[in-house]
Amino acid sequence: MADDRLVIAGREFKSRLWVGTGKYKDFAETQKAIEMSGADVVTVAVRRVNITDRSKENLLDYIDPKKYTILPNTAGCYTVEDAVRYSRLARAAGVSDLVKLEVLGDERTLFPDTAGLIEAAKILIKEGFIVLPYTNDDPIVAKKLVDIGCPAVMPLAAPIGSGLGIRNPYNLKILMESVKVPVIVDAGVGTASDAALAMEYGADAVLMNTAIAGAQDPIAMAEAMKYAVWAGRLAYKAGRIPRKLYATASSPIEGML
Amino acid sequence: MQTSIRIQVNGESREWRSGATVADLLRDLEITTERVAVEVNLEILDRAMFAQRPLKDGDRVEILSFIGGGSF
After folding, report:
1. Which value does ipTM take for this structure?
2. How far A248 CA lies from chain B's nearest CA (Å)?
3. What is the pLDDT of residues A188-219, one digit of tens each?
């Protein structure tokens, strides 16, 4: 698997599991879980610095930006204006031109507002951003995002934090066949088999947060996810056998009494 | 001569000495300039400008950084 690198916009990634950094008990647990997951891309959010209590530690004291690709997101943005503003702030904070673009449509589902997403992506791409859009499992929208210059797309498996696994495997499969850029399945994974399945369908990577951070033992789940993504990727490359209704014996008939 | 100004920092009203720059503000708040973004009156300030930009009465300053987050 060492030579099986994921390449997006000329950047090489070793790991096909990307992880979020929210919802952990503390930074020490965040750090340990990321380490166990083997991920080399971690997502972060952009928020106000606490100006009244400066004793609060900084996440990036625990996650070395030299070791990991820090991928800022626009989580919590419901308008094009906000998503663009947060992207610009993330770039100004000085990590890179990369942004995981989220324009959310609804608080209950956190489904993406795909019209807003395309509009925001256009603005940001014009400003030189490398836009990785969090989108629906809609092949047409994915194609539009690629056409305007997104070097990868990040369709959801299920609503963010729902743990429902892949709700629409056929759409996701069509989506993967519809675009020539890497597809990173983002959001909705509940357990290791969900991640393995996404990779078996042909996803190039999986991004998750809650499935690890919300597990009873996040560190152990991080490790499980690492192997699930590996296994799924290997199985995809190996090529599975076709499904058949009836049995096919695996032992020869010859030599039987 | 005015010796103090009133500014908004991350939504909080603060009294500050006049003539201070954004860099001074960050230093006084003990915020390292590394990996923070500063917006003054909705305009993002280039890091090189922190020491050049004097704070004026009524300025709305936002200081942001990275925190843990996956998707929202």
Report:
1. 0.90
2. 45
3. 999 999 999 999 999 999 999 999 999 999 99
Pairing of strands B37-40, B60-68: antiparallel
- Residue B72: which of A76, A92, A208 has the nearest Cβ? A76
CA distance A219 to A59: 17
Q: Which residues in chain B have their CB less than 8 angstroms from residue A76's CB?
A: 72
At B5-43, the pLDDT tens digits run 999 999 999 998 888 999 999 998 888 888 889 999 999
The answer to whether the CB atoms of B44 and A95 lie below 8 A apart is no
Strand order in the sheet with A154-155: A98-101, A130-135, A154-155
| H-helix or E-strand spanning residue B40 | strand B37-40
A56 is catalytic: no
Q: What angle do CA A27, A30, A35 make, to 5 degrees?
A: 130
Which one of B31, B35, B62 has the shortest CB-CB distance to A60?
Answer: B35
